[in-house]
Write a structure and sequence with these properties.
Elements: H1 9-17, H2 23-29, H3 54-60
């Protein structure tokens, strides 16, 4: 499988196998550590999914459900993030 931006091994295991428990096997098969940073577009080999995990696989491969585990974008709320006259008005 090909790694998406910000994906980690647990996400990859869920997406490819339907089981996060396969992350250790994926790491072992690819000479990786569970905590290694993966590169976008990196190719890794994954075991076949168990037949009883097909519903999980279908869910995890819907584009809206694809992981963005390293997406650290903060959507700020409140006075600490707002700028007077730029993001809100005082009347």
């Amino acid at each position: 499988m090909q790694i998406s931006n910000g994906q980690i091994l647990l996400d990859s295991a869920m997406q490819a196998c339907g089981d996060a428990g396969q992350a250790a096997q994926i790491a072992l098969n690819n000479g990786l550590s569970l905590t290694d940073d993966l590169e976008e577009l990196q190719e890794i080999t994954t075991p076949n999914a168990d037949i009883d995990k097909t519903q999980v696989l279908e869910l995890m491969n819907v584009p809206a459900n694809i992981s963005a585990s390293k997406d650290n974008t903060v959507i700020g709320e409140g006075l600490g993030f707002w700028g007077l006259g730029t993001t809100f008005k005082i009347e």
